[in-house]
Amino acid sequence: xxxxxxITQTISGEIKLEPVNNGSFQVxxxxxxxxxxxxxxFIREKDNRMQLCDFGTTLMRLSYRFDINTENxxxxxxxxxxxxxxEEFEGNFVLETSTDTxxxxxxxxxxxxxxxxxxxxxRKEYVSSMxxxxxxxxxxxxxxxxxxxxxxxxxxxxELGLETDFAILDNVMMPVYIMGIRSDLHAxxxxxxxxxxxxxxxxxxxxxxxxxxxxxxxxxxxxLTNAVYKQYTSLxxxxxxxxxxxxxxxx
Length: 251
Hints:
- The protein is an alpha+beta fold.
- Helices cover 43% and strands 21% of the residues.
- The chain has nine helices and eleven strands.
- The protein has a six-stranded antiparallel sheet with strand order 1-2-3-4-6-5, with helices on one face. The protein has a five-stranded mixed sheet with strand order 7-8-9-10-11, with helices on both faces.
- Helix 7 packs parallel to helix 8.
- It is elongated, with a radius of gyration of 26 Å.
């Protein structure tokens, strides 16, 4: 049995419990969505354990404006829940709790719901922070199926700080240097690398893969354009056309 009196003693007067169907209780607390609606949080007893749950209402609200319809979005959702100790059972978010830990668990649970409710914002931040991880995975896992000699953090002249993210060295007479560009710093380093390779007077192909070229300053964007051989305006662009270009370049 859920000991309502014991729970009530552990929480402030701002939080109340109201009975609903099937012996569950709704948590009436000052946790609100952006539109002013209160979070749907419930306490139920299952298998002699007390649980906080939402009966699927959070995902239902989210579905009105954002679909979790890709593997990437599913991974983000799973990470949010796991980081907050919450499990999902057919859309129902569940967190085990007890009388002694109820208040702390409630705060943790509502934080998880808030993050899920704002997944469209978190996804943009997550994808941005994961740019180099996705970039690296594509080069190693996908380009690695075609090319046998791929070096990471490659320094063709052994000079400190003068390196490319990746080098494809299958054709020693025409190495391919691939650089990920997220910021002005990445752009300036890539430009310096390309100019240095030009002074070496050795043939090579340099490729810049942008996260967002519009985020660069005009000066660094122009410097990179003048230095690099080929640019892709997004990782998706590089994924769809990069392999064909490299094959033609080193054939």
